[in-house]
Write a structure and sequence with these properties.
Number of strands: 0
Distance between the termini: 80 Å
Order of helices and strands: HHHHHHH
Oligomer: single chain
Radius of gyration: 21 Å
Largest sheet: none
Shape: elongated
Helix content: over 70%
Strand content: under 5%
Structural class: mainly alpha
Length: 189
């Protein structure tokens, strides 16, 4: 395999985060608020990076399992069917995250991370322990396995913090600093 073919194959998974970032940048150019921009970023990341990226892996493992096995540097096996459906689960979680709360998105990110970060560890192990430098074992897949859940978690965490800050600011502006549902000076018995 020549170096250009290797580079193209190892970089192909990066198309999903690239589309998500470009889409979010374009969509948030004239965003009315930081909260709206953050929501847009979360949705683009959920649908394109986690959702479509995982759906692409599902379809690939189901339709061309020999190609996928070769790309990873493995022999074809029955586990590829299981990997396909694990990726389908990630795709469903990504699509669900579009209408989820920040707390649910953190949970979705953590769930995706359990599979993808485990896969990342497996890829790195195969790379160093067995010299597996196949394009589907190193490069872009490592970046995607790390970033898909991590970015979702970070964006959702930032959304929760921003909502909490806005709630505190609203409470301070209304004069209710006690955290009580009762306004200052109007306490009921």
């Amino acid at each position: 395999m020549n170096s250009m073919t290797y580079l193209a194959q190892t970089s192909s998974p990066l198309i999903w985060p690239l589309i998500a970032v470009v889409g979010a940048l374009v969509a948030t150019r004239n965003s009315p608020s930081r909260a709206a921009a953050l929501e847009t970023w979360q949705r683009w990341w959920a649908v394109v990076a986690l959702g479509l990226g995982s759906l692409w892996m599902t379809i690939s493992f189901l339709t061309v399992p020999e190609v996928m096995a070769t790309a990873i540097g493995f022999d074809p096996s029955q586990f590829q069917f299981e990997i396909a459906f694990a990726n389908l689960g990630l795709a469903v979680m990504g699509f669900r995250a579009v209408s989820a709360s920040a707390r649910e998105r953190i949970t979705i990110g953590l769930g995706a991370g359990m599979f993808l970060w485990g896969a990342l560890i497996g890829h790195v192990y195969q790379w160093f322990a067995h010299g597996d430098h196949a394009p589907g074992n190193t490069g872009g897949v490592l970046v995607c396995d790390l970033l898909f859940p991590a970015v979702m978690i970070v964006l959702a965490y930032r959304a929760r913090r921003l909502a909490a800050q806005q709630s505190e600011a609203s409470t301070l502006l209304s004069g209710n600093t006690s955290g009580s549902p009762y306004a200052a000076g109007s306490r009921q018995a």
